């Protein structure tokens, strides 16, 4: 009895290769949640115009609520006691897909990508064009893409639920041929885009169209591989993961999305209320024209610091809670981690829908979805084969060197994104298609290859942790 108790108390053992995949996933989450998002919110709040803040909070709030809706679809379809027929859910998903596709196509064709426009006048209040909203406060392309995503996800999981009703098998099938094919094609298309984006080998008349189609297919396949892998990951332990998945959706995504939409809704009325106050007004607001309030107002740097600290502390606390819960609730941490990573990938897409930013936004979306899929592949318990080799000097270099190469290649990859300079200043210079070298691409290609070689030997030797 004593030996059995001691065996149960031992921490879970895993290979160094598997541990490194988990570390990369958590590092990505920490870098974006604790670093990128708070910095973006601060810059948007303190900019000379709140248009970017309005568009960002609206799009981010909608994608959080959309992902919560997809989680509820999964709960309804795959709960041990499902309450909605998959056929009915598939029909609803098809209607939502058609609506989202129609909005996206109509907005793209007409060029009416933002609402309200400069000429809109619908119940104007506080100097706004629609109520108190300033021009371009709502990104209609983001709305169409989000609706399309919810519809496709609903149809996808409804079809899987129909298959489960015919087949009682609940095993984790691991990385099936369908997942491998989608993941490999998505990765190859992403590599093709990165090369063409930096060196422009195609004719100028067709390159933009071809690359957008390539990236669209890459994102679609990466999303399909992730959704299917998440389904298999949860299937054998569904009773233990459904509650955690619902907690991530209801307590995390739904509340975050609702709070962001509240900020989007009350930003300008709040500025109007705060500006004339004796002490809080000058401390929290900054208005350039006294005759145009709140249209010329933004939040002060002090207000940005306060919100930045709240967001950073909240995400940092969530990361610490995940570390604390790893031993007792590993399934919840893994499922929650990969789901939030997918949400971040979709956020990168829907928050950058302008013509100049969309290609690299799709590039980041596909890349992060691929990382989330690989992470979910490593989370499979059957992957946790512990070798008998001690790490040794060579193994230590393989671990440290692989981490270093992945870190540097990730810096270079994210530096290729063509967003606003004040939002994501590049870490590595990347003069695209000029007389000089494309520094980010060369650095990314070099260190990605070196990191892949080292990781291959690390996984092959199966060093134990």
UniProtKB/TrEMBL annotation:
Q: Which residues form the signal peptide?
A: none
Q: What keywords sit in the KW lines?
A: Membrane, Transmembrane, Transmembrane helix
Q: Where are the transmembrane segments?
A: 20-38, 58-78, 90-112, 132-157, 178-197, 209-232, 244-267, 305-326, 333-351, 357-376, 397-421, 441-459
Name of the protein this chain belongs to: DUF998 domain-containing protein
| Species classification | Bacteria, Bacillati, Chloroflexota, Ktedonobacteria, Ktedonobacterales
